Amino acid sequence: MPTERAALGRLAPRLRAAGPAAWSPRVWALVAGFAALLVLAPLASLAVEALRGSSGLWPHLLAYVLPQAVRDTVLLLAGVGLVVVAVGAGAAWLVAAYEFPGRRLLDWALLLPLAVPTYIVAYAYLDLLHPVGPIQSGLRALFGYARPRDLVLPDVRSLPGCILLLGFVLYPYVYLPVRALFLMQSASLIEAGRSLGLGPAAVFRRVALPLARPALALGASLALLEALNDIGAAEFLGVRTLTVSIYATWVNRSDLPGAAGIALVMLVLVLALISVERAARRRRHYAGAAQRSRRMSRTRLSGLPALLALGLGLAPVTVGFLLPAGYLAVAALERLGSAGLSAAIVSETLATLAYAGVAALFATGLGLVVAAGPLLSAGGAAWRDALLRCATLGYAVPGAILAIGLMPPLSALDGALDALSRQITGTGLALVGLGSGTALVYAYVVRFLAITVGSSEAGLARVPRSLGDAARVLGRGPGGALARVHLPLTAPAVLSGALLVFVDCVKELPATLLLRPLNVETLATHLYGEAARGTYEDGAVAALLIVAVGLLPVALLLRVSTPKT
Amino acid sequence: MSRHRFALGLLTLAALVCGPARAQAPAPASGEVNLYTTREPGLIRPLLDAFTAKSGVKVNTVFVDKGLAERVAAEGARSAADVLMTVDIGNLIELVDKDLAQPVRSPAIEAAVPASLRDPEGRWLALSIRARVAYAKPGLKGLDGITYESLADPKYKGEVCLRSGQHPYNTALIAAYLVKHGEEKAEAWLRGLKDNLARKAGGGDRDVARDIVADLCDIGLANSYYVGLMRSGRGGPEQKKWGDGITVALPVFEGGGTHVNVSGAVVAKSAPNRDNAVKLLEYLVSDEAQGLYAKADYEYPVKPGAPVDPLLAELGPLKIDATPLVEIARRRKAASLLVDKVGFDK
């Protein structure tokens, strides 16, 4: 793959300069162990909390809460899973396999919903679709209905409504990796399919889709965990998921042990599901060829099919981004006229960028090292795999609960540092962990490490084994092969993980609210402050800035995940 | 940019964000107070600015939603928190129960706040009052002297809109019902109320007004200050339509008064700026601040005789139910369990 190599030529010498020694297995074990410790510390403190016990919790939950909460959660996840896979993979195939006017625009526009927080989409859609909102009012005027009761349409405040909203906002998690995979795919397999008499639909279903399964699994699991841990949209739309009952247990009954218990049970279930999927995939091989002759060429469409393709591609962009963001933009313009721009918005934007940037850096560095583990060991020891899995657990715990779990370890760290400082200097120390931005960066890293580990893993897995073996034959150690062969080839995947984490940090709410230092406001907390008192249109400027801050990484994401031709 | 300078820049950024430079070392006792609040910044900013203008004490704030008590507890003895401000009596009492508050003796506070709205030992006090009122379709019959009990009456079948039963404002109302009528009657009432719902319990208080305007339901319960927020146009032109499209009544418990909840504050147990913390609380119950609460946030003042905003005054005189707030807080958990038991939110 000389072309990619050339594109990443600037990176490679630096890695080479770092030298093979820096990547020795022992260093790896240290870094991966540290990452696992970072993640396990809050989970352990949640487990301790849960063990404190909560009298009568489980009988109550079993009798009155779980039957319905589990049902709603399963239906929500199944529905969201279907939507994100169908929309995400379908859209990816559309832009990878066909050429039509507007395809280049669609290519990146399809990522836009990533930049909008789900709860804001829920608010905007309720405004738009409510019986007194513009759409239904317009319909009534058009068809001559006098009262809202004369024309009753399905309410967006329902499980199906929630599934559609979350699905159309979260599908880019699938679109991004699957699109990259389709673009890397060699033409020969597709053409073999065609020559065996498969039509376009069958090629997609029987050749392209099965080959994309690792990417599909990664994307869908990220989207589903987002959906599972969502609290804002689900609660607002009246869907009682397990996460909603965790919050009710904690907030309304002051029963943190109970809430921690439910969260951990949920974590175990998520882990079980992920292992089942991994086990099912393990027996298959997704070997890429070291020499790839040419990529699949796009089928050119024109006339009605081209128009149809454009329409199909625009639909998810419209639902997931254009409508809610457009609504916000109109609201922001109205407010700007009357209220003006708040001076604090600049410092809020800077704080948002700084926290998200630092967290993305740490998460990426740690994620890359952790994911590289299996390459460093010939035998593929089980403990390496375990460390790797541990590092990704944070994504499966609701944000606020994770933030609560972070506090005791940080508090202990602060205590230890204070004691140390007293010993050495004779004076105490302020709260270095809990009182500064450290807590927040820590929370982001723990929460989103799964993304960078996952994307690094996916990227490394695509490097043909033969290339690594060649480097070893030529005398490089495992670390050297990693630095000089795998890393340069993996950089696009690593970078796209970093950018995803950045966007996720910008949007993150529960941990940001709970852990940031005094006098620090981010765009997300500003927006929430307005939303919580019911003037979220006043926060429209902040919401649009979140979108804007997210747009640049989204554009970059597209560039790094597009193979050069 | 050279690579080294780039790396240096990154490190500086990391240090700025994470470093102890930003850690709020307990501020010197000269003129600062650190406020941890679950109240939205937009609501309390006018009050804090006025306090700073008057006293010269700078107010550092952090707006926290869920988990305020857990954060202060984890920060421990070296926490920067001076004042903790929150809504809902259950949340206030929780701060006391978790031993995060310290007693305050202040003649100014004791003179301003009636004994029913503060802790006899001075560990918490209410700063403003909000009533759980009825929003209804204009012209709906039977609103005069309407009771909370009657909302479970089958005559409202399919006509009631409400937010989640697990929201603290509803949980507190259900807790008050438990105190007044006992477990059995409360459960029957909640089941009746559930049967009357026009849609799944959810959304926010203002959605009750919007859904009534949309003819989805005839009546619902919501907090009093939203009436002012909507009708004043401060929430935007859309919300003004919702506010103007409903009638508001003050329901009572049979043989009692209207259910209210409070916003309030405590002085943090390890407050590094205790004197300024007390100063802030004394200011918040002063005539000036109580007037601001009414004007800026449409809340009822805790201080007897302080003015009520005209938009709230026109709802009629508020007769507060006599059930002690502490009793309501003690039944919060039972109320939350009851909501699950009758499947109110399903």
UniProtKB/TrEMBL annotation, chain A:
Q: Where in the cell is it found?
A: Cell inner membrane; Cell membrane
Database matches in Pfam families: BPD_transp_1
Keywords, sorted A to Z:
Cell inner membrane, Cell membrane, Membrane, Transmembrane, Transmembrane helix, Transport
Q: Which GO terms of the cellular component aspect does the record hold?
A: plasma membrane
Is Acetylation one of the keywords UniProt gives this record?
A: no
Transmembrane segments annotated in the record for this chain: 74-96, 108-126, 158-176, 259-280, 301-333, 353-375, 387-407, 427-446, 481-503, 540-560
Tell me which residues make up the ABC transmembrane type-1 domain: 70-275, 349-558
What topology does the record note for this protein and the membrane?
Multi-pass membrane protein
Please tell me whether the keyword Cytoplasm is annotated for this protein. no
Biological process (GO) annotations held by this record are: transmembrane transport
Its predominant location is membrane
Tell me the protein family, please.
Belongs to the binding-protein-dependent transport system permease family.
* PANTHER family, per database record: FE(3+)-TRANSPORT SYSTEM PERMEASE PROTEIN FBPB 2 (PTHR43357:SF3), INNER MEMBRANE ABC TRANSPORTER PERMEASE PROTEIN YDCV (PTHR43357)
Please identify the protein, giving its name as recorded.
Iron ABC transporter permease
Q: Which organism is it from?
A: Methylobacterium oryzihabitans
Mind giving the lineage of the organism this protein is from? Answer: Bacteria, Pseudomonadati, Pseudomonadota, Alphaproteobacteria, Hyphomicrobiales
